[in-house]
Amino acid sequence: MTVSVDKPVVPESSRADWFTSYDVEAFETPSGREEIWRFTPMKRLAGLHTGAAATGSASVEVDAAPEVRVETVERADARIGQAGVPADRVAAQAYSSFTSATVVTVPGETKASKPTTVTVTGPGAGQVAYGHLQVRAELFAEGVVVLDHRGSGVYADNVEFVLADGAKLTVVSIQDWADDAVHVSAHHAKVGRDALLKHIVVTLGGDVVRVSPTAAFAGPGGEVDLTGLYFADAGQHLEHRTFVDHAQPNCTSNVVYKGALQGDDAHTVWIGDVLIRAAAEGTQTYELNRNLVLTDGARADSVPNLEIETGEIAGAGHASATGRFDDEQLFYLQARGIPEDQARRLVVRGFFHELLMKIDVPEVRERLEAAIEAELAAVGA
């Protein structure tokens, strides 16, 4: 077993100064030695970082609440790009390559009567596709959106979340790809005054999956809750990179990601960045990452970064840990007559329980609970 827990490091440069552009040619082709790519298996990206041309297309189907508007728009639509700008070459390639975008809007002062589900199906084995999705919550709107990724192939996309003042939006992004799939996704969130974003990422399937959620505050009093749950099997590479940009006063962010790993060469990566700019007085922020290694041969990398430019904050902190089962928990359960395999299942369920309870869509929560059970059964845990 190899377990790697990196100590917090100082980034190559401040996140405030990181380069962004919609133009793919503005980025150099990454070699894998760059800080932003150093954990990613570049040879397994199917050329997404070197300009692979689209050879297919992904299908996008939307089952929307009656109150929600769904549009298919061209790149020239003025709303596209409002939430953020690509910060790496793959995101810029995806932005430069999509042919049409899907825009989902929760109208102002409206509470959606049911979750809206956006199902993205990959282009098929051996095919490459790019996409763009934007979810908008207008003034004082409230809604839940489920992004369900499935199928085969290679897919890169940008996903935008634009929250107007006072809006409340819950997003559940599920990566349940086939074993061959490669998915690189940049999520950009722009959170208005007193708005609330609950962003939940669940990654289970795929060969290589890299999801990078970025949240920026556009007004004071905003709140962001970033949650992640991932389960890596043998050979899988699951990577999550969160960035919260505090540039407004009196905003709150909370980041909690938990993952489990099993099997030879299962690899997970979590990079958590928080930037508190000089103007962001009264900020309250915390980030936490926990990894549970279930078998030998698995590796978890965890790197929290916290950059603070003002001392006038309410609080800031981070924590990270990677380890095996808690022997005391197992002993406690076995001492009460519970067989070891069942005790291990109970420990893993308890490990993920907090995060699963944040998913307010019962059918989605039940599906994920069943998927975790299936993962555990695969190795007789």
TrEMBL record:
Protein name according to UniProt: Fe-S cluster assembly protein SufD
Top-level taxon: Bacteria
NCBIfam families found in the cross-reference section: sufD (TIGR01981)
Encoding gene (name): sufD
Pfam families linked: SUFBD_core
Domain (SUF system FeS cluster assembly SufBD core) ranges: 125-351
BP GO annotations: iron-sulfur cluster assembly
Native source species: Actinokineospora fastidiosa
Membership in a protein family: Belongs to the iron-sulfur cluster assembly SufBD family.
